[in-house]
Every structure is written in structure tokens, then in C-alpha cells.
Design a protein that fits this description.
alpha+beta, 60% helix, elongated
Length: 55
């Protein structure tokens, strides 16, 4: 099964339904990974503040 979408320029773009869901899954996964990285980076800042100077 194919999914057809139109771009802003009026061009038609066709994707196989399998590709459409794969792209949606990858976008959702990347969003989740970026949220987790953002959440963990807040914890990392606290660890960086606790550094001890080295001679």
C-alpha cells in the first residue's frame, strides 16, 4: 500500500506504508533519546560543579 503526500511546492511524494511507519518510529525514538539526554545532562552539570582542581 502506498501513501501519497503533497509538498509545499505541489510535488507528490509516495512512500510505501512500511516506510511511513518506519520513519514515524525512528522520529519517535530520536525524540525519546533526546529527551533522555536532556534529562541526564541536568544531572551531569551537578557532577561537573563538584570537580576537584588537579595540580
Amino acid at each position: 500500500m502506498k501513501v501519497a503526500t503533497k509538498t509545499k511546492n505541489g510535488e507528490t511524494r509516495e512512500l510505501l506504508l512500511k516506510e511511513y511507519f518506519l520513519n514515524a518510529y525512528l522520529i519517535a525514538m530520536l525524540k525519546r533519546v533526546s529527551e533522555e539526554v536532556g534529562r541526564r545532562s541536568g544531572k551531569r552539570e551537578r557532577l561537573v560543579e563538584a570537580r576537584v582542581p588537579v595540580r
